[in-house]
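Section handout 9: paired folding examples.
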Amino acid sequence: MAITAKMVKELREKTGAGMMDCKKALTETNGNMEEAIDFLRKSGAAQAAKKAGRIAAEGATFIETSGNDAVLLEVNCETDFVTKNDKFQKLVADLAKHIVAVKPASLEEALKQTIAESNQTIEEYINSVVATIGEKITLRRFALLNKTDNDVFGSYLHMGGRIGALVLVEGTNDEEVARDVAMHIAAANPKYVSRDDVAEDEVNRERQILKEQALNEGKPEKIVEKMVEGRLGKFFEEICLLDQQFVKDSDIKVKKFVADKGASVKEFVRYEVGEGIEKKEEDFAEEVMSQMKK
């Protein structure tokens, strides 16, 4: 069967795949449109498998709220350029919409679920976008928060989603207050809400380090303990949200800011794209020479 330009255009509009990929799919399936779509889906999975070993440390965070539920997720790709691609942005939004509605218990469970936007599993949907864009794409992680009617979510995306912060504030419905706290979290990167959340082992380890530092400075042992407790306060200011100086008013701490509003912080999550992923360092000149030798 002769494959026409009109057929290729139709398949491309339906799948978003490249023109040559569409022509090949139609040729392989003798012009059957449905079979060609399946062919592209299968080849998309194959292309995704080939890219599985590549490093995806760029990407975006995204926040979606629905009623009393909210999700913060991170989707990774290989280059920052792809984050501006409409298909990538749609994928991220679709994944967030699905997760906040279905609330999967784990990443593994989410990948196996059928997503309404494409009638595919999430894993298949991601692979189809991989086939179109040509980069490895992964749903790396997500966190779901749930509130009551007397609480409020605060959300903030920094640098186009490079950093995402989602916080649950209790005792108020003031969204501006919650957003200010989320903005602070994005900027200050606390690890815990309060001192009570820090594991005893972590505190004792820091206390021992501070004690040895003071002794090495030649401080008298009788005043070391008092010095350590004072320096431990600085440690808590670095890692505990409520102990930190509020970014919008350095004269007060976050604890006072929310307390003055009759509120308190219940929990938060903060993602920064690519944190913890070891990026591959490449020598551009060496890469060009390598390609020329081929």
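Moving on to protein 2 of 2.
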Amino acid sequence: MPPPIRTPRQSWIDAGLALLAADGPDAVRVEVLAQRLGVTRGGFYRQFASRTELITAMLDTWEQRSIDEVLARVEAEGGDARSKVRRAGTLTFSAELLPVDLAVRSWARRDPEVADRLRRVDNRRMDYLRELLSALWDDTAEVEARAMLAFSLLVGNHLIVADHPGGRDRVVADAGRLLLGGLTQL
């Protein structure tokens, strides 16, 4: 008889991230994940020593995907600073990454360790944004203000539910052009 097929570690992590995005951190439970994966709880303990180890691996994966992979892709695709800013924003807040990012932001409000992780991720994002914007403007105060406004626009866009004449996508695109110095008229 062949040995049982083991559920890969990454499958547990991905299932945990999906559950986090859908239902929050308290929903990430070993028995729920095992049920979703169609395996026993024992399979979990062959991959992880504890739920805490899984949570750390989930946050490591989120950080790697939302920072390292995004930046690598933006740099590989090239372009000028404006196009890189746009691409980084689009990738960072993509349909794949956004739900987990929003869940981590919510979680960070009540968990200091998650807040520290989010701070590290956001600082790396802001550092990259500052670097790109510094290619467009010499004034460090202006770079900092534009970086803060651009990042706030991307995060806040998913938290604000107000209606906008002409449509939300148009307003966000116009705001982005204003921030990057490319919109002369509305």
